[in-house]
Specification:
Elements (H helix, E strand, L loop, with lengths): L2 H7 L13 H16 L2 E4 L8 H11 L4 E2 L2 E3 L20 E3 L2 E3 L9 H6 L2 H10 L6 E2 L7 E6 L5 E4 L6 E7 L3 E2 L2 E4 L10 H8 L7 E3 L6 E4 L5 E4 L2 E2 L4 E6 L1 E2 L8 H8 L4 H6 L12
Antiparallel strand pairs: 1-13, 2-5, 3-4, 5-7, 6-17, 7-16, 8-14, 9-13, 9-16, 10-15, 11-12, 11-14
């Protein structure tokens, strides 16, 4: 996305992405640093210009019917539910995941979320927020940019992310439910803290924080150490979220198994990359 086009889409009065040497840009980036260090999550409200919120919602709603649905029984660690575990291990608690994904090749290139995802200016800003030297689009033709769809009666249950960072944006809010809930830093690189994780999975909400996200808000999140979920959606309107997946290195293509699980299909690029030790799967959910 060229700077001029980006300025038409992004609320540059609050988020001056095209001025990385300016004081306002540094202030926003430093604020996200503080949020991510303390609670692992930072929300930038009205990142997309408010006048474009309805366009953002409409574009997502138009492609949502292309979502691939695959209801699964899962656990918080995204490991096989039949994995042998000690009796008290929280991974033995299973839940039903009912969200779906629209693949990148269905997203129109002139859609707001596609223009944002491919913008080098936006990528530079996100990298700075996560204190990374640079980020790269996934080389995967189906992953990278996806629309997450949660219909009424479904949820994205408690889980940890395997990737270090997540970038997302709500494009359609449900009539009820669909709340983002998380437990900041409930575990660490050195301590799994199974007792607290097990308590949350059993319904204890003392460690749970809740976010009310709005259309056009940009969410930056570190989900590797923060247990999180999207609660059950209620009403006739689905919950839609754009997920911008980036990698620390170029050339990343998802595995055949994971791609088929997410989208119900694979392409020649996935078959060609299978077995290539240089490329890894980027989990999107």
């Amino acid at each position: 996305m060229e700077a001029g086009l980006l300025e038409q889409v992004v609320n540059t009065a609050d988020y001056p992405l095209t001025e990385p040497d300016g004081a306002a840009w540094r202030e926003v980036v430093e604020r996200t640093h503080r949020d991510l260090h303390t609670v692992g999550c930072s929300v930038l409200p009205d990142f997309i210009r408010p006048a474009l919120h309805e366009d953002l919602r409409r574009e997502g709603a138009e492609i949502a019917p292309h979502a691939y649905y695959d209801v699964e029984t899962v656990n918080a660690y995204n490991i096989d539910v039949d994995t042998p575990l000690p009796p008290e291990h929280p991974g033995r608690t299973t839940m039903e995941r009912g969200n779906a994904f629209v693949a990148r090749d269905v997203v129109p290139r002139d859609a707001i979320i596609h223009q944002l995802y491919t913008s080098e200016v936006f990528q530079r800003f996100v990298a700075a927020c996560f204190e990374l030297p640079e980020l790269h689009e996934l080389a995967d033709p189906l992953s990278g940019l996806v629309l997450n769809v949660i219909p009424s009666g479904r949820a994205h249950p408690w889980h940890f992310d395997t990737n270090e960072f997540t970038v997302s944006m709500l494009t359609q809010a449900p009539e009820g439910g669909g709340e983002f809930q998380y437990c900041p830093n409930i575990r660490s690189a050195d301590e799994e803290n199974f007792d607290d994780v097990r308590a949350v999975l059993a319904g204890d909400d003392r460690l749970v924080q809740r976010l009310t996200l709005r259309v056009g808000d940009l969410q930056l999140f570190k989900g590797r150490y923060s247990l999180h979920q999207v609660s059950t959606v209620r009403g006739d309107r689905q919950r839609h979220t754009a997920i911008f997946a980036y990698s620390l290195r170029p050339g990343v293509v998802g595995t055949v198994a994971r791609t088929r699980q997410l989208f119900g299909r694979v392409l020649p690029e996935h078959l060609a990359a299978e077995g290539d030790g240089v490329r890894v799967d980027e989990r999107l959910a």
